[in-house]
Design a protein that fits this description.
By secondary structure, the chain is α+β, with helices and mostly antiparallel strands. The protein is 23% helix and 38% strand. The relative contact order is 0.35. InterPro entries: UPF0047_YjbQ-like, YjbQ-like_sf.
Length: 155
């Protein structure tokens, strides 16, 4: 039988909301680590405990929580996405080039938004987890990620 444990629940009134926009200049297809900038946002606003929401405002880029220890993981994930949605599949939608429709498919199977619990001003991420924007297009782009924290202010 699987055993589970949880910490006791704590009630806390919502006392603060804060938001910002993060502009990410990509270099083309690949992963950009947002973890440090997102943690800096929480520190800047004096976050305590609550919920952090990240939202990518694009249909050809996405967000993910992924391993941050070994860069080979991100390289292999790009290979998997290339196999899932290859550029040369003969897509009907190609107004912006052969990488446009595959980028939309890749966004479909990843995330446009992330929800992360925050306790004592820190994201509750696993030991090897980081936050990433995934650029699915070949050319560099300026991508915008909306950040919003709702919860208690820190002490």
């Amino acid at each position: 039988m699987t055993q589970m444990r949880r910490t006791p629940a704590r009630r806390a009134p919502v006392t603060t909301q804060a938001h910002a926009r993060l502009t990410v200049e990509t270099r083309g297809q690949g992963f950009t680590d947002l973890t440090r900038e997102t943690a800096a946002f929480l520190e800047e606003i004096g976050a305590g405990s609550g919920l952090l929401v990240l939202f990518c405002r694009h249909t050809s880029a996405s967000l993910t929580i992924q391993e941050n220890a070994d860069p080979d993981v991100r390289r292999d994930l790009l290979t998997a996405l290339d196999r899932l949605a290859p550029r040369d599949l003969g897509w009907v939608h190609d107004l912006e080039g052969p990488d446009d429709m595959p980028a939309h498919v890749r966004t479909l199977v990843t995330d446009s938004g992330l929800f992360i619990p925050v306790i004592d001003g820190r994201m509750v991420l696993g030991t090897w987890q980081g936050l990433y924007l995934i650029e699915h297009r070949d050319a560099p782009h300026a991508r915008e990620v909306a950040l919003q924290f709702t919860g208690q202010a820190g002490n």
